Amino acid sequence: MKTPIDHKIVKQEIDKMGLPSVGLASIRELNRIVNNIEGITHDQYIRMEMGVPGFDPPKIAVEAETAALKKGVGSKYPPFDGIPELKNEISGFVKNFINVDIKPVSCFPTVGSMQGCYMAMMCTTRRIKDKNKILFIDPGFPVNKRQASVIGVEYEHFDVYEFRGEKLRAKLISYLEKGDIAALMYSNPNNPAWICFNDTELEIIGELATQYDSIVIEDLAYFGMDFRKDYATPCEPPFIPSVAKYTDNYILLISSSKSFSLAGQRIGMTAIPDKLFNSKGDNLEPYFGSSNFGYAYIFGAMYALSSGVSHSGQWGLHGILKAVNEGTFNFVDSVKAYGERAKVMKKLFTDNGFEIVYDMDGQDKIADGFYFTFSYPNFSGVELVEELLYYGISAISLTTTGSDRHEGLRACVSQTGKERFKDLENRLKQFKEDHPSSGDFKIIEQHL
Ligand SMILES: Cc1ncc(COP(=O)(O)O)c(C=O)c1O
Fold first, then answer.
1. Which protein residue's CA is at the shortest distance from atom 2 of ligand 1?
2. Strand order in 268-271's β-sheet?
3. Which of 57, 84, 118, 305 sits at a 20 to 30 Å CA gap from 133?
4. Is residue 375's pLDDT more than 70?
5. Which residue has a Cα nearest atom 15 of ligand 1?
């Protein structure tokens, strides 16, 4: 069968990686395979495997960082917990867009929100003796579980799709009542399903976190990117939904990678409410040299991990945050195009026999955002990852995300501009022709 990308080369490159299954490859492994195939064939894939920004970094951040470098900050160690100017802007940002008050002292930059997550895992799972597990509210970002494994932390997880709304309470209690859950983690909007928790759910999570003394690690990697509401105006509702409204037991991880298109600079933000930051844990001292949570975070975890964040990068982030806080840079407008792309791309998939896997967000249709999920009749997700590679389309299997929906794949829209829609459509059409589903067979039989 002639496929859009040379069958022999795709097969050869898959085999060369020596993976037990290409369908279970990590995001970066799949990325490598596709790079290799593109290098040999000079065919361009529809790259949907990796969540990277599709836009240039904002000029304002570039200029602020360049100016700092020119001033010579490159030779100076920055404070572990960030330059004061940036700490103030992060605190202001959290107030302006989530409407919570967190003092600058417990707002600090991290090396991407990835490092923020790593620190959060380290500190929450060593805070209280025998409270040492993480509960992932899945589906989720696969590398978070890798982070837990790297530091030797055990975890539990469940797929939240069947436990939306009030049903979430009993499900969470079934884990929390064992008493060993140090932290609960989720991303909101969710990578990969683009589920967005509503206030009822956030209230349940918050209430239970307080009741069972577990810390919510709320990953806001797609800050403000639920485009159904306009969250762009500082100090004005609607505010970004967050568990912060419902408990003091939380840590906010805010990425600048997608919302500000700054993935390459590896700078994110962590904000910890004052009560938790100033609290004590009976198990912190042996690991971090202090039993004070905030002190352990900064002078234990951050010191040991990277001793801070690139000095110039901090000034770059400061530049954009200041503009966003003052209302002179609309960060939501600058990334809204992802939602528009998703709308078109989802239609191209569903017009060609594919189905959206996580298609509902509670009672509503799932929003158009940075990711969507899809399946094709009679294929498992793992099989579909491989088969689509022959059609010049790359995406990851949901199996790697802790999803129960093993038939599904995650697609990221960020690298597929309008100019590629025709290619995508042609490839999907050919896929459909080459793989008539059982429904199509029935239609053909009726016509015979
Ligand atoms: C849910 C989630 N959290 C964190 C990250 C990483 O963020 P950062 O680039 O700030 O480290 C990503 C990136 O894809 C993500 O999807």
1. 221
2. 107-110, 268-271, 250-255, 215-220, 181-187, 133-138, 155-159
3. 305
4. yes
5. 221
| Average pLDDT of the residues in 312-322 | 98
Q: What is the pLDDT of residues 329-353, one digit of tens each?
A: 999 999 999 999 999 999 999 999 9
Measured distance CA(84)–CA(103) in Å, rounded? 12
- Which residue is closest in CA terms to ligand 1's atom 12? 221
Helix 59-71 / helix 311-326 crossing angle, nearest 10 deg: 140
* Average pLDDT over every residue of 348-364: 96
pLDDT of residue 17: 86
Percent of the chain surpassing pLDDT 70: 98
Q: 114: closest CA among 150, 168, 87?
A: 150
Does 191 sit in the ligand 1 pocket, CB within 6 Å?
yes
Q: How far is the CA of 146 from the centre of ligand 1 (A)?
A: 13
CATH class for the region spanning 59-326: alpha beta
How far apart are the C-alpha atoms of 322 and 60, rounded to whole Å?
Answer: 10
Instruction: Tell me if 218 CB under 6 Å of ligand 1.
Output: no
What are the tens digits of pLDDT across the range 248-270?
Answer: 999 999 999 999 999 999 999 99
**Top-level CATH class of 7-44+336-447?**
alpha beta
263 lines ligand 1 (CB under 6 A): yes
From CA 46, how far away is CA 19, in angstroms rounded?
A: 22
pLDDT exceeds cutoff 90 at 52 = no
Packed helices 7-17 and 27-41: angle between N→C axes, nearest 10 degrees:
140
Contact 321, 234 (CB under 8 A): no
Does the beta carbon of 113 sit less than 6 angstroms from any atom of ligand 1?
Answer: yes
Is the shortest distance between the CB of 114 and ligand 1 below 6 Å?
yes
Average pLDDT of the residues of the chain: 95
Ligand 1 center–CA 252 separation, angstroms: 13
Protein residue whose Cα sits closest to atom 3 of ligand 1: 221
Cβ(159) to ligand 1 under 6 A? no
Query: What amino acid occupies position 69?
Result: L
CB 300 less than 6 A from any atom of ligand 1: no
Assign 3-class secondary structure to 20-49.
CCHHHCCHHHHHHHHHHHHHHHCCCCEECC
**Tell me, what's the pLDDT at 442?**
45
141 lines ligand 1 (CB under 6 A): yes
Picking from 81, 428, 429, the residue whose alpha carbon sits closest to that of residue 272 is 81
Domain boundaries of the chain, sorted by first residue: 7-44+336-447, 59-326
Tell me the pLDDT tens digit for each residue of 139-170: 999 999 999 999 999 999 999 999 999 999 99
